[in-house]
Automatic annotation (TrEMBL):
<keyword id="KW-0560">Oxidoreductase</keyword>
<dbReference type="InterPro" id="IPR008219">
    <property type="entry name" value="PRODH_bac_arc"/>
</dbReference>
<feature type="binding site">
    <location>
        <position position="180"/>
    </location>
    <ligand>
        <name>FAD</name>
    </ligand>
</feature>
<dbReference type="Pfam" id="PF01619">
    <property type="entry name" value="Pro_dh"/>
</dbReference>
<dbReference type="GO" id="GO:0000166">
    <property type="term" value="F:nucleotide binding"/>
</dbReference>
<feature type="binding site">
    <location>
        <position position="305"/>
    </location>
    <ligand>
        <name>substrate</name>
    </ligand>
</feature>
<dbReference type="GO" id="GO:0010133">
    <property type="term" value="P:L-proline catabolic process to L-glutamate"/>
</dbReference>
<keyword id="KW-0285">Flavoprotein</keyword>
<keyword id="KW-0274">FAD</keyword>
<dbReference type="InterPro" id="IPR029041">
    <property type="entry name" value="FAD-linked_oxidoreductase-like"/>
</dbReference>
<dbReference type="InterPro" id="IPR015659">
    <property type="entry name" value="Proline_oxidase"/>
</dbReference>
<feature type="domain" description="Proline dehydrogenase">
    <location>
        <begin position="57"/>
        <end position="316"/>
    </location>
</feature>
<feature type="binding site">
    <location>
        <begin position="243"/>
        <end position="244"/>
    </location>
    <ligand>
        <name>FAD</name>
    </ligand>
</feature>
<dbReference type="GO" id="GO:0004657">
    <property type="term" value="F:proline dehydrogenase activity"/>
</dbReference>
<feature type="binding site">
    <location>
        <begin position="204"/>
        <end position="206"/>
    </location>
    <ligand>
        <name>FAD</name>
    </ligand>
</feature>
<keyword id="KW-0642">Proline metabolism</keyword>
<feature type="binding site">
    <location>
        <position position="306"/>
    </location>
    <ligand>
        <name>substrate</name>
    </ligand>
</feature>
């Protein structure tokens, strides 16, 4: 079992920030503030596909793969879900037209999708609607040579999300899942997914969750991440190491060596706007690096989760506000 030194880069204000993120008043204040545009541009590639494409092209030209997320969550009616599907279909077309020849990856182009955006929370048959919409996206993506990964959301959706992936994945074996290490259930999920040969993005977790279902302390989350990572590395699937933590990246490199995996059997993933130099370093070392690139006008929840995750992001946020 891998062990790491204590002392991760965890934001002690994370619970307070995530709580504030749920406040309608805070949302109104931040979305109306002129300085917010500067902050958003650090982490989000614009509001439309026309903004996204130049960002995607630059990342691909630097040898990095991409996973693009259209920011939309908590769809409340079928029309919204249909609009999200239409946007993703157009996005897949745009991505397929990009030149990704410089990227060392089995599939340089990927989209990430939240099932809540595809209708999972609709009353009655929401899960079935989302699963059908996911199948539609995978059909188009498969024709275009683009991968799809289903994002994780809060713990109340985990079972339904994994069930949808299990239903669709037999037809599209490259369909990926996301596991959040701070959930107490995640090691078991990783073992199951690894045994099935699945692609799995392992992240620490970004939502506010109760102690009954999620680890609350940094050392517990780190230990869970390492257990999950080892399960994935020793399994038959394709691990995607989604972390900016140098200790987790180093642990992944050690496990890659110990388990006999080749560079193309694992990839590292980081968020757009965070640790760009490290992304370039890992890619230059011959590893696959995939950058998670969000776009869209529903950026508020995404931005607040990024600010809550790391002290460095909070410092950037506060500096921008202070310079008004």
């Amino acid at each position: 079992m891998l062990r790491i030194a204590a002392g991760g880069s965890v934001n002690p204000l994370r619970p307070a920030i995530l709580a504030a993120a749920g406040s309608a008043r805070v949302k109104r204040l931040l979305t109306a503030a002129p300085v917010t545009a500067e902050i958003v541009s650090r982490f989000v590639a614009g509001e439309g596909r026309a903004d996204l494409v130049p960002v995607a092209r630059e990342l691909l030209s630097s040898g990095r793969a991409i996973s693009v997320d259209f920011l939309g969550e908590n769809t409340v009616d079928r029309e919204q879900a249909e609009n999200a599907v239409a946007e993703y279909l157009a996005l897949i077309n745009d991505l397929a037209a990009l030149d990704a020849a410089r990227v060392r990856a089995a599939a340089p182009l990927e989209v990430s999708v939240k099932l809540s955006a595809l209708g999972q929370a609709l009353p009655g048959d929401g899960p079935a609607v989302a699963t059908e919409n996911l199948h539609t996206l995978c059909t188009k993506a498969g024709q275009a040579g683009v991968w799809v990964t289903v994002d994780a959301e809060d713990h109340t959706t985990t079972d339904a999300t994994l069930a949808a992936v299990r239903q669709v994945r037999p037809e599209f074996p490259w369909l990926g899942s996301v596991v959040q290490a701070y959930l107490r259930r995640s090691e078991a999920d990783c073992r199951e997914l690894a045994a099935a040969g699945a692609r799995v993005r392992l992240c620490k977790g970004a939502y506010r969750e109760p102690e009954a279902v999620a680890f609350q302390h940094a050392d517990e989350v780190d230990a869970s991440y390492l257990r999950c990572l080892e399960a994935l590395m020793r399994g038959a699937g394709y691990p995607m190491v989604a972390s900016h933590d140098p200790r987790m990246i180093a642990a992944a490199a050690r496990l890659t060596s110990v388990t006999g995996r080749r560079a193309g059997d694992v990839e590292y993933q980081m968020l757009y706007g965070i640790r760009d130099d490290e992304q370039r370093r890992i890619a230059a070392d011959g590893q696959t690096v995939r950058v998670y690139v969000p776009y869209g006008n529903q950026w508020y929840g995404y931005l607040m989760r990024r600010v809550a995750e790391r002290p460095a992001n909070l410092r950037f946020f506060l500096r921008a506000l202070a310079q008004r």
